């Protein structure tokens, strides 16, 4: 869960989902990254149990699934600027994310 | 899932009742004052309330039929979760630090207000989703 919250892109995804459920495409439009990279971010969030997904027709919808404590931790990590994604996370990045970003 | 939750709730209840009985016993042996017993039990009640409310927004259930209903349900769960968690923490804090008379009134007022707002917001959410579903 901490790893999922450490990345600013994933935190931003969670913040966007606070407004309500959104499709994967709608969320991806907010970030200048490739679709496979976004998919990997979504996978990390799903694995951490912070989001819930549902396939509605051809659209993959996401919604927030965070406890109060998890949301507070996200706010704190954002406020303290715990941007661990740049250097430290490189070594600890999940395999799915590493694979996606090299494509 | 239901079995896991039920067994967790039973464990919490047993721990809670055991702690309350232990405090009563300690009080009967004059190890602690009746005020300390009351305060400790009320702090436990507040923390338990906060613990359960903390999980409220995570309990999203099935996907609602429309995106509007999904957004409103999520909003109601978040508002309720945050309000009751904060009320539980405030309840525990009041019983830990405030004078007994004030803690008694204020803790009840805080929890009742949070519950009422949660119920009103949840009711409004439910009604607004239903009225949207009806044909014009």
Can you put this structure into words, describing what you see?
The complex is a heterodimer of chains A (103) and B (136). The longest helix of chain A is centred in the middle third of the chain and has 13 residues, at 35-47. In chain A, strands 1-3-2 form a three-stranded antiparallel beta sheet. Chain A has helices at 2-6, 8-17, 24-28, 35-47, 68-79, 88-92, 95-102; strands at 22-23, 51-56, 59-64. Helix content of chain A is 56%, strand content 14%. Chain A is α+β, with helices and mostly antiparallel strands and 103 residues long. Chain A has a single domain (2-81), classed as Arc Repressor Mutant, subunit A (Orthogonal Bundle). Chain A starts with a helix and ends with a helix. Chain A contains seven helices and three strands. In chain A, a hairpin with a 2-residue loop joins strand 2 and strand 3 (59-64). In chain A, helix 4 (35-47) runs antiparallel to helix 7 (95-102). Chain A is globular. Chain B has 136 residues and is mainly α. Chain B has one domain (2-133). Chain B is 83% helix and 0% strand. Chain B is built from four helices and no strands. Chain B has helices at residues 2-28, 34-54, 67-97, 100-133. In chain B, helix 1 (2-28) packs antiparallel against helix 2, helix 2 (34-54) runs antiparallel to helix 3 (67-97) and helix 3 packs antiparallel against helix 4. The longest helix of chain B is centred in the C-terminal third of the chain and has 34 residues, at 100-133. The A-B interface holds A 18-21, 49, 52, 54, 56, 61, 63-71 and B 53-58, 60, 63, 67, 70-71, 74-75, 78, 81-82, 85.
Percent range for helical residues of chain B? over 70%
Terminal CA distance of chain A reads 26 Å
What is the percentage of strand-forming residues of chain B? under 5%
By DSSP, the count of extended strands of chain A is 3
Strand order of the largest sheet of chain A: 1-3-2
List low-confidence stretches of chain A.
84-93
Write the element-wise H/E pattern of chain A from the N-terminal end onward. Answer: HHEHHEEHHH
CATH topology (level 3) name of chain A: Arc Repressor Mutant, subunit A
CATH top-level class of chain A? Mainly Alpha
> Largest sheet of chain B at a glance?
none
Give the low-confidence spans of chain B: none
Number of helical runs of chain B? 4
Rg of chain A, alpha carbons: 13 Å
- Identify the CATH homologous superfamily of chain A: Winged helix-like DNA-binding domain superfamily/Winged helix DNA-binding domain
